[in-house]
Amino acid sequence: MQLHLKHRKASRIIKRVTEINTEGGLPKTGQTMIYQPGDDGSYQMGYPLGGGQRFIDNGDGTVIDTVTGLMWIKDPTQAGLGSPMYWYDAINACENLDFAGHDDWRLPNINELMSIVDHSRYNPAFDTFYFTPFPDTWTPYWSSTTNASWIDGAWALYPYDGYKTTWGKPWDMCFVRPVRGGQS
Amino acid sequence: MPSDKVTVEFKDGKKITKYPGGKVEEQTKNDLERYKQFLIREKQRIDRHISLIDDDLAKMAV
After folding, report:
1. Which residues, in sequence order, are bridge partners of residue B8?
2. Complex prediction ipTM
3. A40-51: per-residue pLDDT in tens?
4. Which residues of B touch A149 (CB under 8 A)?
5. How close, in Å, is residue A170 to chain B by CA atoms?
6. What pLDDT was estimated at residue B1?
7. For labelling, which of A76, A88, A107, B34 has a CA lying 20 to 30 Å from the CA of A133?
8. What range does the domain containing A101 cover?
9. How far does the CA of residue A173 sit from the closest CA of chain B (Å)?
10. How does pLDDT run across A72-129, given as a tens digit for each residue?
């Protein structure tokens, strides 16, 4: 009986790993330059496979990421979010946002935010065709994720190069790029 | 500005933050000291990188 359960668990794990390998998983970093054999550029692991198109512009101010399934706002300024703000205000602004026929926008968590970074670029480290940058690339984007080691701070991401950092929730002002969808 | 529903008080050597909905988080002196040390080390790394870039910039002077 125990052996049977163990076998079922193993089968489930193998099935899940196969699903991830064939249908999704971590996005590519975007880096194609090989600085050293064995580095990211050598392998270019992640999705989409074969350099396929990753983002789709919906033409209504939103962009779909075909790897993560998340929907992003192409230009937050068009949604009235053109200025940096405090963390609590950033959360409220996203929660109260009604844009492109959707009212379930939220502040992205840090993993979601990092998922759209393109490490082959800088200033900004995003594909600007799909993600309209703010003129100031030295001010980070807020994530909704609190830094566990200093709860007065939340994780934030510099659009300049994709550097992940912590800014103070009540003291620092960052930009906002709302997201919707994803797994819960 | 912080949400007016979040309150902070210092009691028994701890920083106590109370959130809407009743959640309470405490930070001890050790927690804050450890993070401060982390930031100091990060500052040193940034200073080191700035100095390396300064060296390169100096060599580029025409």
Report:
1. B17
2. 0.82
3. 999 999 888 666
4. 31, 34-35, 38
5. 5
6. 46
7. A88
8. 54-184
9. 9
10. 999 999 999 999 999 999 999 999 999 999 999 999 999 999 999 999 999 999 999 9
Q: Is the pLDDT of residue A23 over 90?
A: no
How does residue B20 score in pLDDT terms, banded at 50, 70 and 90? confident
Q: Are A132 and A94 in contact (CB under 8 A)?
A: no
- Structural domain boundaries in chain B: 7-60
- Point out the residue among B2, B3, B17 whose CB comes nearest to the CB of A151: B17
Chain B within 8 Å of A150 (Cβ-Cβ)? yes
Residues A68 and A29 grouped into a single domain: no
Tokens of A126: 């995003």
Q: Are residues A74 and A8 in the same domain?
A: no
Residue A70, SS3? coil
Q: What does the block give as tokens for B31?
A: 């927690």
Quick one: which H or E segment has residue A156? strand A153-157
CB burial of A33-61 (b: ≥16 within 10 Å; e: otherwise) equals eeeeeeebbeebebbeeeeeebbeeeeeb
The pLDDT of residue A1 is 63
What are the tokens at B41? 């080390």
State the maximum Cα–Cα separation within chain B, in Å, rounded to a whole number: 63
SS3 A164: strand
Mean pLDDT of chain B: 91
